[in-house]
Specification:
The protein is an alpha/beta fold. It folds into 2 domains: 156 residues, Rossmann fold (3-Layer(aba) Sandwich), CATH 3.40.50; 56 residues, DNA polymerase, domain 1 (Orthogonal Bundle). The protein has 9 helices and 6 strands, in the order E-H-H-H-H-H-E-H-E-H-E-H-E-E-H. A 6-stranded parallel beta sheet has the order 3-2-1-4-5-6, covered by helices on one side. Helix 6 links the parallel strand 2 and strand 3. The longest helix is centred in the N-terminal third of the chain and has 17 residues.
């Protein structure tokens, strides 16, 4: 069995956004998910039921439903993003404990998301943790190529001059940790709190035992506090 990578050497901390920096059970992404379905139904002039099938098929095959709609139907990314991210962010509550833990992590902190910068900033503002992050690398910066495309991670590493062997990646989808692990990053899968109901596809919850997942947590704040205490202890 391969040894799990540690955090002793980490100087750059990379975080996904949705369902990673806030709890899965908030189900904020459910709002985005619904608006994606509405967009697809209206654009393709099909029923909501048919749109749902298309949406989930493209999400799984292309990394995001948007990429599928762009590739298969020529959708403009600006139109898509402007519509699907018009959501109510109020379910998110400030998380000062997480902010304090992130602040104490030694080194740089970055966001790598398949969402837009506007959406990321709205989320970070609601959580009250935006000040701790150096930059957001979003779907536009990725030239509309979503995770888990290998070129997206490489572009991110180059853009922000990150040494993958000294970086850790926090994600809620195991498939999005395959390439980071291959590149040398220490990987952390953030899974739902088992006591709360979450709205996810079955495949989205798989992979916690995969070899490319070094660590798993259902409490990101507690996990980060533990890392900080280890480093400072």
């Amino acid at each position: 069995m391969t040894a799990k990578r540690s955090f002793r050497h980490i100087d750059t901390w990379v975080f996904d956004l949705d369902n990673t920096l806030y709890p899965h059970h908030v189900n904020l992404w459910q709002q985005v998910d619904q608006r994606i379905g509405e967009f697809i139904a209206a654009y393709l002039k099909i029923s909501e039921e048919e749109a749902r099938v298309v949406q989930k098929d493209y999400y799984r095959r292309y990394g995001t439903s948007m990429r599928g709609m762009m590739t298969e139907h020529g959708v403009r990314a600006d139109d898509y993003l402007a519509y699907v991210h018009q959501i109510d962010h109020s379910p998110l509550e400030p998380n000062p404990a997480m902010g304090a833990a992130i602040a104490r992590l030694p080194g740089r902190k970055l966001i790598l998301t398949n969402g837009s910068t506007d959406h990321a900033e709205a989320v970070l503002t609601r959580l009250g943790i935006g000040e701790h992050f150096e930059a957001v690398f979003d779907i536009i910066a990725a030239n509309l190529e979503p995770k888990p495309a290998p070129q997206t991670y490489r572009k991110f590493l180059k853009r922000h001059d990150v040494d993958a062997s000294k970086a850790a990646m926090f994600e809620d989808l195991a498939r999005n940790l395959v390439v980071p692990h291959q590149l040398g990053m220490t990987t952390v899968l953030v899974v739902p709190d088992g006591t709360r109901e979450v709205v996810r596809e079955d495949w989205e919850l798989e992979g916690r035992d995969a070899p490319h997942v070094d660590h798993v947590t259902d409490d990101l704040t507690g996990f980060l506090e533990g890392l900080v205490n280890q480093r400072e202890g």
